[in-house]
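User: I'll paste a sequence; please echo it back and then give the predicted structure.

Assistant: Echoing your sequence first, then the prediction.
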Amino acid sequence: MSMMQSVFSDTTCSVWEPLIEEVRPKGKTPPKNLRRTISAIFWRHQNGAKWLALPSEFGPWWIAAQSFIRWSKLGVWQRLFEKVRGADPELGMVFLDGTVIRAHHKAAGAAKKGGTESAERIVRLLAAHVEDLAPRSV
């Protein structure tokens, strides 16, 4: 199984693609390899890695980073979260236990420029529930 398929199986992707298409900004040219870019963003947030640490299978790291930042500023992640939360009521009931989460020593400062903090949190929640929206085979 490829790394991209470990983030989004074909079944899961068929559920997520229409949701992402609905909320993503429409530009002059449609994005190339949207599944690869979204997989890279979710992989990064599932693993807590830096953008530069993205495996080459996800393409150039800067494409995923640039898309994440641009979509954060446009509110795309918030809209996607609202859509997903509407589809899966349990997604809104996610709690994190602070005893297991260690803050980086630089976490005590003020917010960074760019305003991606809430988008980071939202994408981590979405990434944690990638498979939850896929239909279950019985």
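Residues 3-133 form one domain. The two ends are 22 Å apart (CA to CA).
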